[in-house]
Amino acid sequence: MPEIRILHCIRQGQIGGGESHVLDLVKNLDRKRFICMVLSFTDGPMIKRLHEQGIPAFVVPTRFPFDFRIWSSVSKIIVENNIDIIHVHGTRAFSNCFVSAKRINIPIIYTVHGWSFNHYQNIIRHKLTIAIEKYFTKVARVVINVSESNRETGCKVIPNLKSEVIQNGIDTEIFNTGQQFKNLRKELNIKDNTTVIGFIARMTYQKDPLTLIHAFHQLVQKQNQENKFLLLMIGDGEKKAEAIKLVNELNLATMVRFENFRNDIPDLLNTLDVFCLPSLWEGLPLSVLEAMAMRKIVVATAVDGTREIIDHNKNGYLFSPQNVSELCNLLEEGSKANSHNDNIRSNALKTIQEKFTLKCMIQKTEQIYGRFINSVS
Q1: Which CATH class is domain 184-355?
Q2: Distance CA 117, CA 114 (A)
Q3: What does the domain layout of the chain look like in residue ranges?
Q4: Residues 6+ away with beta carbon under 8 Å from 307
Q5: What DSSP state is assigned to residue 284?
Q6: Residue 251 pLDDT > 90
Q7: Edge-to-edge strand order for the sheet containing 195-200?
Q8: pTM to 2 decimals?
Q9: Average pLDDT value over all residues in the chain
Q10: Which of 83, 221, 230, 248 lies in the 20 to 30 Å Cα band around 180?
């Protein structure tokens, strides 16, 4: 059976959901059949991790979409490494790969981790991003959505969209409560009787950290003297400065802890009591899957793929986007030590084990790659 040489292209070298997805793929695909390489358009910890694993990784620096100045560099990487398939993750990466792929006649697989259009955009940007996605999905040989909800959203605005759904899966050997974990409560000086609510994500408009801060403010105003809460916010992004400013304005500085992005996600999740993801939109969030695998109470917005993971009040809690009071109430409910929340934690783990395993995601991806065997033999 011939080897297939695959170049995974992604926007940045920082580690978020899409980048974690790429790391899981290249690490776990059958290396006897698939030779994987990664192209990123910024440097970062993902590149370092790939090098540590012996996986070739290239950085062609740019922060702009459709950057014609780098297309020749991308083409050179494709040619010199005898690439058979380009697997693009996200619209920005697609915009800087498709010209090179078309020139060299290399097929593109396009994984949509979340459409670039959403109803929070102004009308001009909304129409422009839809037009771009229409073109990209036409150029791609295969389109993959990470949630059925995202596939349905695409079908509503892209006529005759042919898309396949491969839901994200996670490595339950890494995200497993049976492991030994670092004592981050001691490292971060968090008292044992403190209830820790965690946000681990890029601090962007999409992830909406400000709504969480407002909800947390309401929560601590309601607490009695026996209840002590800490909001641990892990991540970086353009909303971080605004988030820090809001925390100071609300006099929450002693109850909200900001940390830069960290690689020890399982240890962080083990430290939390409640995980919150207040996103305005999502593909199918890996962070929610990871928290559920660690048997954490998850409170998240009822959007897109998140609704395919969480069954409200059964394996987690869902609230409406930007609804501060609703989020406050659910954070309070999720923080309680009772049999109902014990059942939610157990059901969360069961959901991951039954529906969102890395093994299933890898098998379905390999089946798609296998369709190209004849063209590369």
Answers
A1: alpha beta
A2: 9
A3: 4-169+357-376, 184-355
A4: 149, 318
A5: S
A6: yes
A7: 256-259, 229-234, 195-200, 274-277, 297-301, 317-319
A8: 0.92
A9: 94
A10: 230
